[in-house]
C-alpha cells in the first residue's frame, strides 16, 4: 500500500507551517490561508485548519541504516524523543529502527528505516531521503471491525492482534490501529485520540480515499 496523500488538521496552522518549512526545511508546495502542503518523497502531506483538533501519530520511511544520521539531522533542529534513555528505537520483529519527535502541534512524527525494503544509500542524510509517508495512527475500540473494513480493500494484518494493537498493510504503508483505552502512543505516555484524517492510498493500482471522522471510517474509490 502506498499513502499518496495524507490530510491532517491543525490547531495552529501558522506554527505548523513555520515548523515544517523553517525548522525541518521542507519546501512547501501550496500555501493558502486555511491549508498548506508539501511533498515527502512520493507522498504529499497537507495540514488544514480544523475546528476540532487532537494530536496524531504518523511515520515517514527513510533509507535503511540511516537512523543514526537522522538523529544527527534532527538534533540540530529539535529535541528527539527518547525511550529508556535511547534516541533510536529498535523494532527487531519488524527489522526496523526508528526515531521520534514532536512537531508544533505535538503530533508524534516518526522517521523509520526498514531493512527489508533494501533501499540503503551512501548519501548523507537530508530531507530528500524522506521517501514517503508510511504510517498513520487510528484510535479505535473495535479493532476487528476496523480490520474488516481494510480487508475489503485487500489489506492484510502486518502485525498485532485484535486486543489493543493492529498494524494493517505493508512496509510501504500501514494503518496503525490502536485501542485508546489500552495503549499510549510510543515512545511517550501521550493519550491516543480519535483524530480525524483523510488518506489517499493506492493498493494494487486501485486508488482509494479513506476518511476517518471520529469513530467512523468511510472510503471512496477514485
Automatic annotation (TrEMBL):
SUPFAM superfamilies: Glyoxalase/Bleomycin resistance protein/Dihydroxybiphenyl dioxygenase. InterPro entries: Glyas_Bleomycin-R_OHBP_Dase, Glyas_Fos-R_dOase_dom. Residues 4-47 form the Glyoxalase/fosfomycin resistance/dioxygenase domain. This is VOC family protein. It comes from Flammeovirga pectinis.
Amino acid at each position: 500500500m502506498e499513502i499518496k496523500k495524507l490530510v491532517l488538521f491543525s490547531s495552529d496552522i501558522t506554527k505548523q507551517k513555520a515548523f515544517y518549512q523553517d525548522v525541518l526545511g521542507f519546501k512547501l508546495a501550496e500555501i493558502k490561508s486555511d491549508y498548506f502542503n508539501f511533498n515527502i518523497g512520493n507522498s504529499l502531506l497537507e495540514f488544514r485548519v480544523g475546528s476540532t483538533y487532537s494530536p496524531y501519530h504518523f511515520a515517514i520511511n527513510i533509507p535503511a541504516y540511516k537512523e543514526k544520521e537522522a538523529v544527527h539531522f534532527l538534533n540540530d533542529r529539535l529535541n528527539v524523543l527518547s525511550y529508556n534513555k535511547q534516541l533510536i528505537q529498535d523494532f527487531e520483529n519488524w527489522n526496523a529502527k526508528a526515531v521520534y519527535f514532536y512537531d508544533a502541534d505535538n503530533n508524534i512524527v516518526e522517521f523509520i528505516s526498514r531493512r527489508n525494503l533494501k533501499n540503503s544509500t551512501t548519501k548523507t542524510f537530508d530531507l530528500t531521503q524522506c521517501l514517503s509517508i508510511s504510517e498513520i495512527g487510528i484510535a479505535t475500540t473495535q479493532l476487528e471491525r476496523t480490520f474488516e473494513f481494510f480487508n475489503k480493500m485487500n489489506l492484510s494484518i502486518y502485525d498485532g492482534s485484535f486486543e489493543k494493537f493492529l498494524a494493517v498493510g505493508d512496509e510501504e504503508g500501514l494503518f496503525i490501529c490502536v485501542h485508546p483505552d489500552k495503549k499510549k502512543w510510543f515512545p511517550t505516555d501521550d493519550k491516543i485520540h480519535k483524530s480525524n484524517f483523510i488518506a489517499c492510498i493506492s493498493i494494487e493500482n486501485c486508488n482509494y480515499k479513506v476518511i476517518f471522522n471520529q469513530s467512523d471510517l468511510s472510503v471512496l474509490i477514485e
